[in-house]
């Protein structure tokens, strides 16, 4: 078994977040969602963000994805608190693949056509689109269902298509927001194992939002605990469990001890007063 293959501490971060703040509304109606978020992700690192509902996990991921704005103290002078490979993030881009809990597949296209559609938007020629789509449908083990429509697929299969689509244009980062939250327990475990296989093969940097602490410990190199009132980073845990991981690891003392520590940190973060 091997240890996590992340970049060394001396390497520049793949994702760099500095003093990120986010509020909704204005004046007396303004609500502070995120306060002074500082976070680095190394190349090839798998980091999960956990915390109680309302702590801003999904908002943070949406800002990194370029789908949500941030508070800008510069007054619009090309400022961004989020950088990928040193470049500021202002909008969505093909350097980030995004997978949500909802599958967001186009119902009139087959599984393979959904992947090809994303590649067409990326400007890829038709023959190359077919080849790359077939490759990524195979990567998520859906070859037999390549020509099936979303209505003919189970929830787990739809999420496999969503993952294949997000990976197909070779992003620098994969951003995942509760991607397995709507799945039953067995399908969820199968999807976790598939994600680990894909991550081992592609060695992507992954930012993963989940409310499931067991899932976070199983998947991650590092776990970030967020607190509420407003959302901020409260504590970080390194997951020093060997890779590759199998489902049996969840029953080990080391796994259960870390799971307990993270749960305790979430409870303590939720009990702290706002401000």
TrEMBL record:
Record field: transmembrane: none
Protein keywords: ATP-binding, Nucleotide-binding, Transport
An example Gene Ontology molecular-function term: ATP binding
CDD domains: ABC_NrtD_SsuB_transporters
InterPro entries per record: AAA+_ATPase, ABC_transporter-like_ATP-bd, ABC_transporter-like_CS, ABC_transporter_ATP-bind, P-loop_NTPase
Highest rank taxon of the organism: Bacteria
Residues in ABC transporter domain copies: 15-253
Protein family (similarity comment): Belongs to the ABC transporter superfamily.
Full protein name: ABC transporter ATP-binding protein
């Amino acid at each position: 078994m091997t240890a996590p293959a992340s970049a060394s501490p001396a390497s520049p971060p793949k994702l760099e977040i500095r003093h990120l703040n986010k509020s909704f509304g204005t004046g007396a109606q303004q609500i502070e969602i995120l306060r002074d978020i500082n976070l680095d992700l190394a190349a090839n690192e798998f980091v999960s963000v956990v915390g109680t509902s309302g702590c801003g996990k999904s908002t943070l991921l949406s800002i990194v994805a370029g789908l949500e704005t941030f508070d800008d103290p510069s007054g619009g002078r090309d400022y961004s608190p989020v950088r990928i490979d040193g470049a500021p993030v202002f909008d969505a881009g093909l350097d980030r693949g995004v997978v949500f809990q909802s599958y967001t597949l186009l119902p009139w296209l087959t599984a393979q056509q959904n992947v090809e559609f994303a590649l067409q938007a990326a400007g890829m020629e038709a023959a190359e689109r077919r080849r790359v789509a077939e490759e990524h449908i195979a990567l998520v083990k859906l070859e037999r269902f390549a020509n099936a429509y979303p209505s003919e697929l189970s929830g787990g299969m739809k999420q496999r298509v969503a993952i294949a689509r997000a990976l197909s244009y070779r992003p620098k980062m994969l951003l995942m927001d509760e991607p397995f939250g709507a799945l039953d327990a067995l399908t969820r475990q199968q999807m976790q194992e598939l994600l680990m296989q894909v991550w081992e093969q592609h060695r992507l940097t992954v930012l993963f939002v989940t409310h499931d602490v067991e899932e976070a410990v199983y998947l991650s190199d590092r776990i970030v605990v967020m607190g509420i009132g407003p959302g901020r980073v409260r504590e970080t845990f390194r997951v020093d469990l060997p890779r590759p991981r199998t489902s049996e690891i969840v029953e080990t003392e080391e796994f259960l001890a870390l799971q307990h520590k993270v749960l305790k940190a979430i409870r303590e973060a939720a009990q702290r007063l706002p401000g």
